[in-house]
Amino acid sequence: MTPEYHMLAWTVVLGLVQLVLAVLVAIKARGLPWALGPRDAAMPRLEGMGGRLDRAFWNLLETFPFFAAVVLAGGALGMHSQATVWGATLFFWARVVYVPVYVMGVPGLRTGIWGLSVVGIVMLLTPLL
Questions:
Q1: Other C-beta atoms within 10 Å of 85: how many?
Q2: 18-68 pLDDT, tens per residue?
């Protein structure tokens, strides 16, 4: 398995961890009946740390399809290289760092880290163009 595929797998693990954390915070804020129920009623948006955990998770979901697509396409076409290893690694570690920075509410730094993760995707995409 290439390092790019390893980073893809670890990003899935990261997403699952973020999902569980976001759900646990939502259950704490909204209660177990909400979690077990049909969730028909609109709930207020999560605030504070819980809201930031939830938004960090959804932010990963916005970029993950692009990351997965370029990792899988690069592997299928035999275009993985040292540059794509760096790109996949940059994406993954930027996403790891993104979570605590977002949860702490550090202004500006969160956006910069997000930008680094996008640079990682571009590094993976470049050989495919």
A1: 17
A2: 999 998 998 888 888 777 778 777 777 878 888 999 999 999 999 999 999
pLDDT in tens, 66-121: 999 999 999 999 999 999 999 999 999 999 999 999 999 888 999 999 999 999 99
Matching residue, tokens 């259950």 = 27
CB 9 within 8 A of CB 72: no
**Contact in structure between 124 and 69 (CB atoms under 8 Å):** no
Nearest residue to 56 via CA among 94, 95, 7, 11: 95
Cβ-in-10-Å burial (0-12, 13-18, 19+) of 76 comes to exposed
CA dihedral 90, 92, 93, 95 (to 10 degrees): 110
